[in-house]
Design brief:
Elements lengths: L1 H15 L2 E4 L6 E2 L1 H13 L7 H6 L5 H11 L6 H14 L5 E2 L1 H9 L5 E5 L4 H10 L8 E3 L12 H10 L6 E5 L2 H10 L2 E4 L4
Parallel strand pairs: 1-4, 1-6, 4-5, 6-7
Antiparallel strand pairs: 2-3
């Protein structure tokens, strides 16, 4: 009887999840060091230093919020648009070195055609699309939501709520895969189940 009850509960859980939402950087794509390295090079010309661990702590939060914050903490004036252009140039120069995060991409691949799927990222549209094409998963997802698509960003829940809206799935029927604290908090605020891929 106990086994039957447990099996029924597992079936209910499977039935409840109708959509999978994936972060991009650090979740589907092993790209965080490449982003850090590109930003470090871009900020050197403006005499702004970038601490690697502090950078990773803010994973998932758009650079337009994080980089000016780092500059302000150092009392430096920042030309963000110049830095962003330099950063994207450096990042794209090494994009062919980016690889999949296998255990997460395997989950997406095994659910293609079974569940609705989206990418919900704090990155820019250009870089997110380039990375998904690089690891050859671009056509796996019904929609891709990036920082240009919402006014508020992780840890605010809007990127995940927008992805759910586009998929026409209620938040409580979504499961999020994330690697950063801002994204995990955003999923919680959205009322979605969340898997921390660092613990997988």
């Amino acid at each position: 009887l106990h086994r039957v009850d447990r099996r029924q509960r597992q079936m209910c859980i499977r039935d409840r999840i109708q959509a999978l939402l994936f972060d991009c950087d650090g979740t589907l794509v092993d790209s965080m060091f490449a982003h850090y390295s590109a930003w470090q090079k871009a900020l050197q010309s403006q005499d702004i230093s970038l601490d690697e661990q502090n950078f990773y702590i803010h994973s998932g939060t758009p650079s337009s919020r994080v980089i000016p914050m780092f500059a302000a903490e150092q009392g430096k004036d920042l030309d963000f648009q110049q830095a962003l252009a330099e950063k994207e140039k450096h990042f794209l120069e090494s994009i062919d070195l980016l690889r999949r995060i296998p255990h997460v991409v395997d989950i997406a691949e095994s659910n293609r055609g079974k569940l609705k799927m989206a990418v919900a990222s704090g990155g820019t549209r250009n870089l997110v699309h380039r990375q998904l094409r690089q690891i050859q998963v671009m056509d796996w997802f019904e929609t891709i939501v990036t920082c240009e698509d919402t006014e508020y960003h992780k840890p605010d829940p809007h990127v995940f709520l927008e992805a759910a809206r586009r998929l026409q799935v209620k938040p409580e029927h979504c499961r999020v895969y994330e690697d950063g604290e801002p994204g995990i908090e955003a999923a919680r605020r959205a009322g979605m189940e969340c898997v921390d891929i660092r613990a997988m």
